[in-house]
Design a protein that fits this description.
single chain; 89 residues; mainly alpha; 5 helices; flat
Amino acid sequence: MTAPNDDPPVADLTTTVPSRGWLDRRIDWRGIRRTLLDREVPSRLNWWHTLGSATLTVFAVQAVTGIVLATYYAPAPDHAYESVQVHPA
């Protein structure tokens, strides 16, 4: 005999949203989620690890966008503004 469960029922999104069930059957959405998000986190991790990885991510984004900007930006006073504007093809 099992103890009664006091937790509120959780709706299964694959039955309430038909397109989500279809997508899950095609690409195994739950398996991808399980692989990426449901991991054991070591107890030795702390905020320094989190903030360090966030800083590394921000630095990588700045480096990539800086390289792209350096290839297109014209530092001449009469061409600087036009060099960073988006021109439709």
